[in-house]
Amino acid sequence: MKTMTSRERVLAAIHHIQPDRVPVDFGxxxxxxxxxIAYRKLRQHLGLPPKPxxxxxxxxxxxxxxxDVLQRFGVDAVExxxxxxxxxxxxxPWVLPDGGACLLPAWVDVRRDGEDWVxxxxxxxxxxxxxxxxxxxxxxxxxxxxxxxxDLAGLPEVMPEVTWSVPAPPPPGxxxxxxxxxxxxxxxxxxxxxxxxxxxxxxxxxxxxxxFFLLLAxxxxxxxxxxxxxxxxxxxxxxxxxxxxxxYIDIVLFGDDLGMQNGPQVxxxxxxxxFFPRQKVMWRxxxxxxxxxxxxxxxxxxxxxxxxxIAAGLEAINPVQISCAGMDPAGLxxxxxxxxxxxxxxxxxxxxxxxxxxxxxxxxxxxxxxxxSPGGGFVFQQVHNVMADVPPANIVAAxxxxxxxxx
Length: 407
Fold this sequence. Notes:
The protein has helices at residues 6-14, 36-46, 67-72, 155-158, 176-186, 200-207, 209-218, 220-245, 268-274, 276-289, 306-312, 329-336, 352-355, 358-372, 392-403, and strands spanning 55-57, 62-63, 77-79, 91-95, 101-105, 109-113, 116-120, 126-130, 138-139, 190-196, 251-255, 259-260, 263-264, 293-297, 316-318, 341-343, 378-379. The chain is an alpha/beta fold. The protein has a single domain (6-403), classed as TIM Barrel.
């Protein structure tokens, strides 16, 4: 078989064509990366020269994976954000929970409060806290905690108050299309553009989880009104976003964590009523605006929703949380493998990656490859991000198992 470029390899997999080798993702979206603490250890383990550790996702404290690591692991996809933040003015110093130095995007407003760190919105409101000893920030402000207002005209101004990650590129004052065009010219890797378009999660961010579930179940008319307004906002943003970057990207990533460890957060009936028609509208519009493939970041045991997600227009799903109820790889490949690309499920990050030996990790990964890789429809990534406590030898073992896979 002819050797493919990285972009050709990823697109073949999404289109259910057997690529020349299994395509690999490491850090092309915010659930396939690595925490900054683990990344420093990984670079040291690989014998690579020290580089500044750049944290691009404040809440999860994920590191930008440098080109030398991407090359070492044969990574085939990158995030659109790599086209930005190349100047010294884009970064500010910070200290990770283990005391290691790192850099944060310059526009992130994080301040020390005693032993804690507090994250502030653009308006100066405290929205998140990282308690002493914690590795993450947790939300502390919900605009609609006391109820959804009747007038939702001002929702676009409210949403930045609970934006949980670094704002999407470009940095303030930069040209989005120019950065995307430059990145496209500089790489043959598939480019993943993070859009979002979350619905269930935005309800949770605004109302708090418990209140939003009560709204869906007890006040469906009000829930529909809120979700309709969110879709209006998402569609307007999608028009601007894909109008700028559409010619230069391959995959647009939407998000909504519809699942839990033991199954979906909402029933299939509730998904069909509240979320299916709205996702279908957004995903169809994305395809009209640009030559892109639709991927959804969706954690948890979502097997009962997969038929509906595919009917809504979904082409790829990540991170494929194989430790959850119903997410057995063989069953998923058998029942959905001809219709959906599984972008993930390659290595269990709940128990295997942090707890097994390198040989155990290697065996586990190759067992997954034997299931997932035949016929395309698979991009390797570990199940969600590599956590801070994962031994670097295990990370290397996982990616080397893919490199050595004969399929």
